[in-house]
Amino acid sequence: MAPSTASPPMYHTSYPKLLSGRYEAILLGSWNRRLVINPAPAIEEELAGLLVYLGKIKVEQQHAAKVELDKEAGTLPYLHNRWHPDIPTIGKIENNEVVKIQCVDWTGGQIGNNDSANDMRDVDLTKIHYLTGPFEIETAEPGDILVVEIQDVQPLEEQPWGFTGVFSKKNGGGFLDEIYPEPAKAIWDFEGIHCSSRHIPGVRFAGLIHPGILGCAPSQEVLELWNKREGELISACAHMDRDVAKPPEPINVHAGTADEKIKEKVGREGARTIPGRPEHGGNCDIKNLSRGSKVFLPVHVKGAKFSVGDLHFSQGDGEISFCGAIEMAGEITIKFSVMKAGMEELGTKSPIYIPGPVEPQFGPGRYIYFEGFSVDEHGKQHYLDATIAYRQTCLRVIEYLRRYGYNDYQIYLLLSCAPVQGHIAGIVDIPNACTTLGVPIDIFDFDITPGKKVEKRDMGACAFAS
């Protein structure tokens, strides 16, 4: 198409007032030109709004952070992998502003799209999680609540796949590692809103895409509290044959743009990102924090120092294999607002959330629910132990689904990442807690309902280590 001979008008928009966000404008019409407007110089807000209304320009949100998947995550200045109040912020976000933030997968690219679980076996857990941030949120002060409104979450176009893994019991383990100690992996291909895996055939479902980690930085006092109580737990459980918590670890610490002095301090004091914690949220892995959700996060430092990461295409309640969601690199769109003195107003010391209206649609009659109790696989009775009960619930599902030809690791992986519903049904009827796990019938391309004839199929295998 030949260019127009007329001189195109030079439209700008007022930044960031127009739509409370970081934007670039696309001039519509015969010129079809893109105008980057960060920051834009001079036009009345009313005229800019009129041009948008008339369809002469449209606005697109810009990114507060964009990732580079071809670079080592530990070298990128906008990522970090510890919680500490001294990690420098990478940018400022205005109160009531909407931004897009890109994230690497939680391992920082250590897992490949292949048919071997050697990378799961050899993953370096001193590096995880890589979070994007921290961001300074304008006007946020200690005692406030940061309201995080999730407007969208999507995988990156250049990486339309994710992974679910089982770590070796010797390196990370998982909820069922005493029974399934070997590393394994499944790769999932994204097909619009759906996903499927060559490693777990016969299954396809819609994703409920969400961040595993949302949190504000701890204050120095809160950080010291974390290290004290988790250190006491580690000391009290020194006789156990597994880690019960992860203390600060200077190896492979990444503190964004911090200088060497601050980086050394973060390595010595910084909290690991593995657990969620009551004071700030963090790695809570709540699958319903998807589009339309609002999260209310306590603020402990000036500017909040918000970080996000560990994006999931889908996850089952419990994320039982530890690397158990469909882990992915992606992009999240968030609106931030500050509730002044919100911790006192809401009467809360811990996060609160309101889930969005988006969820895979399985009717209440389209789940099979399995029950588990506080009696372990060796027949030993425990007292109101919901962890034992949930483990037994998972084992009942594995026993049921293996009849169709799946191996146990395939089912373990599936229960960790598919949209299964886990609940505590009873917690007072001594000595047994009762937990349930609902498996959606319609994610399978064959009928798994009880009473139907069982046909054992060739279901292949997930990826194992060599």
From TrEMBL:
<dbReference type="InterPro" id="IPR004304">
    <property type="entry name" value="FmdA_AmdA"/>
</dbReference>
<dbReference type="InterPro" id="IPR054833">
    <property type="entry name" value="FormamaseFmdA"/>
</dbReference>
<dbReference type="GO" id="GO:0016811">
    <property type="term" value="F:hydrolase activity, acting on carbon-nitrogen (but not peptide) bonds, in linear amides"/>
</dbReference>
<protein>
    <recommendedName>
        <fullName>Formamidase</fullName>
    </recommendedName>
</protein>
<dbReference type="Pfam" id="PF03069">
    <property type="entry name" value="FmdA_AmdA"/>
</dbReference>
